[in-house]
User: What shape does this take?
Amino acid sequence: MSTAPPALLAGLIDDAAVFPPGNAPLDVAVARHRAHRRAAYAGLVGPLLVPVADVETLVAEASGDHAPLAVGLIARPGVEPRAVADAVARLRDEDVVEVVGAELGWFAGWRTLPVDGLPLTLEVPRGADRDRALDDVRAGVDESGRVVQAKFRTGATPTWEWPDEVELAAFLHDCARLGVPFKLTGGLHHAVRAEHDGEPQHGLLNVLLAVHSAVHDGARAAVESLLAQRDPRLLTDAVLDLDDESARRVRSLFTAYGCCEVTDPIGELDDLGVLDLAALAPDEETPS
Assistant: This one.
C-alpha cells in the first residue's frame, strides 16, 4: 500500500488539548498525551502545549513514575513576555518536564528574552507589522544560534477573523520566499478544506500541498487554488505523489501545527490512505 513519505508527517501535530475548542483539563490532557506517546501514531505527535500560567499544575500532573513530559510553553499575544521567562525558569530544574520550546506573540525585543537558547516560536500579527515580523525572523536562527520561527493562526477566535485562502496563501508564499520556517495553530482539525459546524476550516492536506507549491514555484495563485480545493481524492493522490525530498523541503518550512485533538486528523489521514496505522503497529487500536 502506497502512503505518504514518513518525513512529511513525522512530529507534525503538536498536542493542544487544553486549548479551545478542546479545553481539556490539564490532568486529562497529560494522561491522554502519555497515551498518544504509546500509540501506533506516536511518531506523528509533537509535544504537549501548556499555557505558561499553568506551570505549577503541570509539575504536579507530570510527577510520578514516568519519562519526562516534553512540553511547549504557550503565551498568547498580549501576555507579558516576562511570564515566559519565569515559566521556563520555574521548570528548568524539574526532572519531570522537558521544555522543548516556547511560543509567544512577536515583539521587537524578543532577542532579549532571558530563556538561554530555548527555541522560540513568534506569532506574527496582521497588518503592517506582519511583514516586519517575518523579516525579523527570516533566518530561522538568531545571532546566538537559537532556533526561531514564525507562527500564524489558521482558525477563527473571538478576536481573530478566519483567514481565507488569499490571506493564508500570502503568508505561505512569503515564508517560502523569505525562507522563514513556521508553525500553524488553530483550525486544522480535518484533512480536507470544508465547512464544519457552519464555519470554514482549512484542510491539512491542502496546507501541505500549498507549502509544496510555494516552495517549488512560488506562484501565489497556485497556492490559493490548493488551499481552496475540496476534492479529497485529488488531494490524497497529490500527497501520495510527493517523494522523500519534496516531503523534507515542505517540513523544513512547515515545522508543526497545534491541534486540540490529535486523533481527529490522524484518523482521517488513515481513512484516506495517506497513513496505514495498522501497518505501523498491527496490535494497536487506530483512532476513530
Observations:
- The first helix runs from residue 6 to 9.
